[in-house]
Write a structure and sequence with these properties.
Largest sheet: 6 strands, mixed
Structural class: alpha+beta
Number of helices: 3
Number of strands: 6
Strand order of the largest sheet: 1-2-3-5-4-6
CATH topology: Heat Shock Protein 90
Strand content: 25-35%
CATH architecture: 2-Layer Sandwich
CATH superfamily: Histidine kinase-like ATPase, C-terminal domain
CATH class: Alpha Beta
């Protein structure tokens, strides 16, 4: 049976740290530590920051869900701006932002997004026990 942790934060930059703390605590409670915990926490930070920054819906909330179902851990970040889908792009060396999805691409085993009736969800999947080297993939529909 999978373990799931879901929480919401207001769509404001000052709450990104709160999301990071919730993610770190959930991972620690599940015994997920070291590099994997660092990677999941970093990507949660990036995806929540993207949701907070790019969601155009006033007074929105961002939902974060972690699901641990051996052998995978899935991070999902959902916001109500269903039509602003994430796009991976190359950032110029002097740009201050725009590298979040490149980090997701580099650190997750797979990632993607899906449109729901009233929201969009960006997800990242991590393999806990590796039997060889997994292929990293951007998959546009569902985790």
């Amino acid at each position: 049976m999978p373990a799931t942790e879901t929480f919401r934060i207001p769509k404001h930059r000052r709450h990104v740290a709160t999301a990071r703390q919730h993610v770190r605590k959930a991972l620690a409670d599940w015994g997920v530590t070291d590099q994997l915990a660092d990677a999941v926490t970093l990507l949660a930070n990036e995806l929540v920051t993207n949701a907070v920054t790019h969601c155009r819906i006033s007074f929105a909330q961002v939902e974060v869900t972690l699901t641990l179902c051996e052998p995978e851990l899935v991070l999902e970040v959902t916001d109500p701006d269903r039509n602003r889908l994430p796009r991976l792009h190359d950032s110029a060396p002097d740009e201050e932002g725009g590298r979040g999805l490149a980090l997701v691409e580099a650190l997750a085993d797979a990632w993607g997004h899906r449109q729901e009736p009233y929201a969009k969800c960006v997800w990242a999947r991590f393999t806990l026990a590796r039997a060889g080297t997994p292929e990293r993939a951007h998959v546009p529909d569902g985790p």
